[in-house]
Amino acid sequence: MSVTDWITQVLEVVVALAAAPALLGWLNQCRAWLQNRRAPSLWLPYRNLRKLFHKEAVIAENASPLFRIAPYVVFGSMVLAAGIIPSMGTRLPLVVSADAIALVGLFAAARVFMTLAAMDVGTAFGTLGARREMMVGFLAEPALLMVIFVASLISSSTALPVITEHLASGHLGLSPGLAFSAVAFVLVLLAENARIPVDNPATHLELTMIHEAMVLEYSARHLALMEWAAQLKLFNYVCIGFALFLPWGVATGHIGPVGLLVAIPALAVKLAAAGAGLALIETVSAKMRVMRIPEFLGTAFLFAVLGLLVHVLLGA
Amino acid sequence: MLLLGCVALLLGWAGIGFAGLLRPRSVFFTGRILFPLGALLGLALAALGAASLAGGGIERLVLPLGLPGLPMHLRLDPLSSVFLVLLGASSGGISLFAGGYFRAGEGTAPGLLCLQYHLFLASMGWVLIADDAYSFLVAWELMALSSYFLVVTQHRIPEIRRAGFLYLLMAHVGAICLLLCFGVMQGGSWLFTFHAMRAAHLSPGWASAAFLLALVGFGAKAGLVPLHVWLPEAHPAAPSPVSALMSGVMLKTAVYGMLRVGLDLLGRPVWWWGLVPLILGLFTIFYGVLFAAVQTDMKRLLAYSSVENIGIVFTGIGLTIVFAGSGMRVVAALALLATLYHCLNHAFMKSLLFLGTGSVLHATGERNLGRLGGLIHRMPWVAWLTLIGTLAIAGLPPLNGFVSEWLLLQSFLFADHLPHAFVNLLIPMGMALVALGAALAGYVMVKFYGVIFLGQPREASLAHAHDCGWLERIGLAWLALGCLALGLAPLQVIGALGAVTRQLIGAVVPQASAHWWLLAPVPGRPVSYGPVVFLTATLAVVLLTALLVRLTYRQRVRRAPAWDCGFGALTPRMQDTAEGFGQPIRHLFQSFFDIERELPAPADRAPRYRIAIRERIWKLLYEPLSGAVERLANAAARVQQGRISVYLLYSFATLLVLLAVALLS
Fold first, then answer.
1. Which residue stretches of B489-598 are H helix?
2. What tens digit of pLDDT does each residue of A126-163 get?
3. N or C: which end of chain A has fewer CB within 10 A?
4. In angstroms, rounded to a whole number, what is the distance separating the alpha carbons of residues B3 and B493?
5. What domain range is B649 assigned to?
6. Given A68, A132, A137, which is nearest B439 (Cβ)?
7. What does the alpha-carbon distance between residue B469 and residue B461 come to, in Å, rounded to a whole number?
8. What's the mean per-residue pLDDT of chain A?
9. Cβ-proximal residues to A211 (8 Å cutoff; 6+ apart), any chain
10. Is the distance from CB of B116 to CB of B17 less than 8 angstroms?
């Protein structure tokens, strides 16, 4: 553990915290352009967070302490996840304490706290959102795990940096197993981050919403933390995608400032491309009915299992 | 010496039980004195087991008890020590809780209950140290009988008597298989000590038969699908501490038996044996968790969740055997570690949850999730301690449930090195099912916790619910502490379990890291997990965020009526019911369930919605089976005429046949 490793570690978290709202802003901008609308500012998510942090918090009368703790736990989980995923460098001191399975567990913990908080006040929308979120989660989570396992089998480890280093050192093309799981991963990413076609982040039509229904009772700083955590989640998922499928530009091995000078622009370019790509997917697809979501995610799960089977059959 | 200590403690438990008969009506005497004393003995037993595990040695003892010429053989080795620790440590918490839980006027008198309860404990301990088939089966039957009487504590209710009967029936179907299994394993020597069974050389066919018989026998006790049917009936019927003991500990004695027979008595296992528990275990995971998701009775939900966890354990056993039979010893040891770890975990977390439901039941008189809600305000102790168990069983890091799932998944990842091409393809499916089961368990647990403890109270009477007493709090806290400790110190636990893998597999999982906090058990793979760092990092981030937010933004928090998108008139009826929360699962996996539904007509004045979900297995397997048994019995009953002359004729005919046989041979 050298000093540069720790610097990389801190930098990763700081960059994630700072860039996550921008990624969302960029995605919204691209979407607006593709849909022939005037685009909102890239900085809108930051202004939103700032506004929310400055407001007076209103909490329901019958909310329990769990309701107030949950935003901090959810936010903390996402920050920690950002520290585990090798987005810029692979030598991260924190990463020895949590591999990819633990990362999926971390996401699950955040989800459980969020749904419990949504059920805490006891409103119709809260429980409805919680139920739907768990419905998305119980299929998306194993699909994500399966996607990770394909990469783990290829690189003989479930530690994300090892996977990234192994894949980055290999040839440029995707192996067939990984190709299937890449499809699965994109589907999971859309579902987990409440994007179209699973959820509509822009809607406030109660009957169709999932994420928004859960955070309905939150206001001010609690809402800000929840929103920021959601942006971080999107950022983290995109970075997992990079680590598994596009590991180029990530500084491997012990690096100095030079490695980071390559890694940061590479990350920025990849994020920009991913944001544009997601905006395109969201523009060309329509929101599904809620009970169609399991079919969508079941497809993702099957693709992931197929990826695993193809990998085992072809022997890497 | 340690073994003698164990025997003394088990006899002590029996003694405490009989002491209960001194003042059978006194709740104070049994609850405040005897049960806490039993808890102390449990902790002492756990300490003895831990000491034996640390020593790693084997002790034997022959007690001149029982039939003449058939002394009782006892043995304490690492495998039994682990399960003694499990029994002692978890029963310590359960007994403390039970001390505060049992009240007068609830079915069986407290003194008698105390006797049954402590005999149950002692017989479970005796099963673990028995070293011959006789004492094993005697203890096994004592365990079944004492728990049967505990299940029917409220014997005035017909459903409970029926549940008890089903339990007794399944227990005996299993016991018959075990009897046959031991009969096969003596291998012609007619010696029924385990020592002789280890030495017996069985042909592969007979060894496989013994293994399958053991799987059915122990599977019926553990709750392996399709032999699980008694669990969802007996667990809700029993008083909560008994449910906790049965689910947390008794199911594990079956796992102990399976490991003892499969990996110890039968010698080196054949690899394909493992496929049977593996496939059954995977199916059990999926089946258990799906049914747990649609339950509306909180204890029944937990019973199905136990079925799921037993599936995880048997999946681990199956993997262990497949790997051990294929010569991959270190990986087999890893799978065995996952199995044992999950047993320990489940003993703590499931007991905690069952006891939590017991407190809720006492405070509200309700088992139906549809009439609970909002109890976190009225019963904070129970709610927060149960939350730990809920998060643990949902498999969330850094608690204990995650560790065993992590170990199991890691051992799955070695499957592509197996020398059997067909199995290589099967294993990814297994991994997918384990992952899906874990995620569904999260669903189930959110439903369980959210509907009971969060939201608004669904009934007006819940406003009078009270928190549990101090003995119960200590019991719950002890189990919650166990969940935390098992989650945060996996390295120490795994180090202690090494003696078992050395005994059964002949290999130890190497620890690749020099740090005490870093779990890196996977041979040759750079993988590690450090729960302490994980927890510290999470807590640090959470606290730092809270501190920063607090320092920077000083705005106060205002309490106001719930916003709910501006709709007024919020009533508790608008929350999801248990049926509602499980609806997506019911809808998605419709073909799994036998659903009976009564929907209200549009013009109904008093609309009623009723839904009953049964297992298809009753119609497909058990009802035809019981019908066949009945027909067979009716056919056999024709022999029974009730007239002396006919019976004399039978005797005469028998005599003639025997004479003919004797003459011909």
1. 490-504, 531-552, 578-588
2. 888 898 889 988 889 999 999 998 888 888 888 888 88
3. N
4. 22
5. 589-598+609-664
6. A137
7. 20
8. 86
9. A129, A133, A194, A199, A201, A230
10. yes
Question: Which pairing describes strands B610-615 and B593-598: parallel, antiparallel, or unpaired?
Answer: antiparallel
DSSP at A86: -
Cβ distance of A153 and B525 shorter than 8 Å: no
What ipTM is given for this predicted complex? 0.92
Query: What gap in Å lies between CA B593 and CA B290, rounded to an integer?
Result: 9
**Shortest Cα distance, chain B CAs vs residue A302, angstroms:** 9
In chain A, what residues touch B577 (CB-CB under 8 Å)? none
Three-state secondary structure string covering B28-57: HHHHHHHHHHHHHHHHHHHHHHHHHHHHCC
Of A77, A79, A127, nearest to B576 by CB-CB distance is A127
pLDDT band at B513 (very low <50, low <70, confident <90, very high): low
Residues of A in contact with B377 (CB under 8 A): 62, 64
Nearest to B196 by CA among B185, B180, B207, B205: B185
Domain count, chain B: 1
**What does the block give as tokens for B360?**
């809720």
In this predicted structure, which of A286-290, B50-54, B157-161, B450-454 has the lowest mean pLDDT? A286-290
Residues B110 and B104 sit within 8 Å (Cβ to Cβ): yes
Q: Rounded to an integer, what distance in angstroms lies between the CA atom of residue A162 and that of residue B526? A: 8
- Residues B432 and A142: beta-carbon distance below 8 Å: yes
C-beta atoms of B428 and A72 within 8 A: no
What are the angstrom distances between the C-alpha of A204 and each of A27, A135, A198, B93, B250? Answer: 19, 20, 15, 48, 51
- Residues of A in Cβ contact (< 8 Å) with B440: 138
List CB contacts (< 8 A) between B427 and chain A. 312
With CB atoms and an 8 Å threshold, state whether B564 touches A66.
no
Q: Report chain B residues whose CB lies below 8 A from the CB of A68.
A: 557
Per DSSP bridges, beta strands A57-60 and B557-560 are parallel
Q: How many CB atoms lie within 10 A of CB A56?
A: 12
Question: Measured between CB atoms, which of A116, A135, A294 is closest to B449?
Answer: A116
CB atoms A73 and B542 under 8 Å: yes
pTM for this predicted structure: 0.93
CA neighbor of B561 nearest in space, from A233, A175, A186, A60: A60
* Residue B473, C-beta contacts closer than 8 angstroms, at least 6 positions apart: B381, B385
Segment B74-89 mean pLDDT: 92
Mutate one of B286, B451, B548, B557 to test the A interface: name it (highest A CB count within 10 A).
Answer: B557
- In B, which residues are within 8 Å of A116 by CB distance? 446, 449-450, 454
Positive or negative: CA dihedral A166, A170, A174, A175: negative
CA quadruple A95, A96, A101, A105: dihedral sign: negative
User: In the structure encoding, which two tokens stand for residue B560, read together?
Assistant: 């106001």
Among the ranges given (A192-206, B203-217, B299-313), the one the predictor scored with the smallest mean pLDDT: A192-206
Residue B512 tokens read as 């690749």
Q: Share the mean pLDDT of chain B.
A: 88
Residue B543 lies in a domain: no
Residue B399 belongs to a domain: no
How far is B308 from B303, CA to CA, in rounded Å? 9
Minimum-distance CB partner of A138 among B442, B537, B581: B442
Alpha carbon B345 to chain centroid, angstroms: 10
Q: Which residues, at least 6 apart from B206, have a Cβ–Cβ distance to it below 8 Å?
A: B184, B187
Q: How far is B70 from chain A (nearest CA, A)?
A: 52
pLDDT per position as a tens digit, B612-653: 888 888 888 888 999 999 999 999 888 887 788 888 999 999
Residue B521: which of B374, B645, B336 has the closest Cα? B336
